Amino acid sequence: MEINEAVQKYERYTYADYCSWNDEKRYELIDGIPYALAAPSRSHQKTSMQISSIINNYLAGKPCEVFAAPFDVRLNADTLDDTVVQPDILVVCDESKLNEKGCIGAPDMVVEIISPSTSMRDRVLKLNRYLLAGVREYWIVDPDDMTVMVHILKNGEYVINAYGGDDEIPVHVLKGCVINMAEVFPIN
User: Which superfamily is assigned to 40-184 in CATH?
Assistant: First the structure.
């Protein structure tokens, strides 16, 4: 069955179904509904590379690992197993959550770099799924506005901080790691 047909019929899928799709397109599965992923833009890729490089350099010799999309994250593998996302960047500090296919459970940190086509999904739908799953730190990066919204999990809710300009952003799940906005969005 074509995925587009399935969405039109409002069918719900699980991770097992997701693994069986032999499509050339990439998808995320949120609450059993597939969402096609478009190829990232040049600015999206540059932003992703900058942030992941800074985090990767910081993590040298430390137990946490950073990964970049495509990398499957099964947020509710222990229950319905119907939500598989591919964050742009993620950090996992618990090696037992990792297997050869991706991450099972909540990463410690997730970074989504928004585009006009993903903005609402990243700001609402995925934000709520990350909160429910227990992602400790969730960044929403907007390369067009050169801003970062940082969501820190405290007492079951996200506390939000906004950054822009030449702000320095502390990575709360990685003590001592700081990302300078000027490094993420260099002015040419």
Answer: tt1808, chain A (3.90.1570.10)
